[in-house]
Design goal:
Layout lengths: L1 E7 L2 E6 L10 E10 L2 H9 L1 E2 L2 E2 L4 E2 L3 E9 L11 E4 L2 E2 L5 H4 L10 E2 L13 E5 L3 E3 L6 H20 L6 E5 L3 H12 L4 E5 L3 H9 L4 E3 L6 H8 L4 E6 L4 H10 E9 L12 H6 L3 E4 L7 H10 L8 E6 L3 H9 L7 E5 L1
Parallel strand pairs: 13-14, 13-16, 14-15, 16-17, 17-18, 19-20
Antiparallel strand pairs: 1-2, 1-6, 3-7, 3-11, 3-20, 4-5, 7-8, 8-12, 9-10
Helix pairs in contact: 3-4, 3-9
Length: about 350
């Protein structure tokens, strides 16, 4: 079969690789139909690493995907050949202390699609997955929407992890797919004011279109001052979704005493910092968000019933053989891209 592999920094090439086969009774063989390009994929594309996770070339990336079941293991009970499925890219052991405590997203032996040393990515024609990572989807849910369920689940989880959001005023710093997913999750949960910042005006226009109370571009204006003028008592929670030190600093300033800073963005640097006086005097709670746990089903059901309209996120589509072009586009933030999907 064909797989699209990173063979160097910013270089993707199609390779012939062995067809995967069922090895465990709980395995499912999925023919991949759509793959979304995520910000974490871009770290590997541009830098070859995320922190201490360093890839060895060639390496297949990608973790946002959906497809059709081609074969199932003997112990698989919830799926059959021909089922359309969305994929949760996390493959926990289900036995360690973290899994027993309901934290299978921080499983001690977690395998995650497209992470070096864990599992190859999904930018290939077929993939073997455990049954627990495959979620059936109805005909009304397109493969593209099913792909978006992965970042949407992260946004839903981030909102859930923050605080009871109904009636609260929040900030979202970074309006990429994760920031937009937080926006959709916060809107459904009843946030009263949603303030969104980004350096790309087109993304701000999208955010306003799906429910942002106010948007601002930090390159063009003092967004902290502008938000403070509208919210003199400051914000209850701020979601940092771009992985930038500047945004983290803005988040601390925007928060009211007792507020919560939610960190969803992945910085390209190894260390970030916080102003000790501001965080201490305000008693700011700093909460990292590690992917998601238990939110894929909610995301898919919300997409199915219309609570989460995610179609606006999918701005570009590419065939498999043009994956290099897709990654170049997303890495360069060109053409008004928000989410590019590679179709197989």
């Amino acid at each position: 079969m064909k797989a699209m592999a990173l063979t160097g920094i910013r270089r993707l090439e199609p390779l012939e690789v062995p067809d995967p086969s069922i090895a465990r009774d709980t395995d499912v063989l999925v023919r991949i139909r759509a793959v979304g390009i995520c910000g974490s994929d871009l770290h590997y594309f541009k830098e070859g690493r995320i922190g201490d996770q360093v890839i060895e070339f060639p390496y297949t990336v990608g973790h946002e995907c959906a497809g059709v079941v081609e074969e199932v293991g003997r112990a698989v009970t919830a799926l059959k050949r021909g089922d359309r499925v969305a994929i949760d890219p996390a493959m926990p052991c289900w036995h360690c202390d973290q899994c027993r405590d309901g934290r299978h997203h921080t499983c001690r032996a977690l395998r995650f699609l497209g992470c070096p040393g864990q599992a190859p990515g999904c930018l290939s024609e077929r993939l073997i997955l455990p049954e627990t990572s495959c979620f059936p989807i109805p005909e009304s849910t397109t493969f593209e929407r099913a792909v978006i369920s992965e970042p949407l689940a992260i946004g839903i989880y981030g909102v859930r992890k923050s605080m009871p959001i109904k009636g609260k005023r929040i900030g979202i710093l970074g309006a990429g797919p994760i920031g937009m997913s937080v926006l959709l999750g916060a809107k459904v949960k009843g946030a009263q004011g949603i303030y969104v910042t980004d350096k790309i005006d087109g993304r701000l226009a999208m955010a306003r279109g799906v429910g942002a109370t106010w948007t601002g571009n930090p390159v063009k204006e003092d967004v902290v001052r502008r938000i403070a003028e509208r919210e003199p008592e400051e914000l209850d929670a701020v979601f940092e979704c771009c992985g930038q030190q500047e945004a983290l600093d803005q988040g601390v300033t925007l928060l009211k005493p007792g507020g919560k800073l939610m960190i969803l963005g992945i910085p390209a640097v190894e260390r970030i910092s916080f102003d000790v006086d501001d965080t201490r005097r305000k008693e700011i709670c700093i909460q990292h968000v590690r992917r998601q746990v238990g939110c894929t089903g909610e995301a898919l059901e919300g997409i199915r019933c219309g609570d989460y309209d995610v179609d606006f996120m999918i701005t570009h589509r590419f065939p498999f053989e043009r994956a290099q072009e897709a990654f170049d586009l997303v890495a360069g933030y060109r053409g008004g891209v928000l989410k590019a999907v590679v179709e197989l």
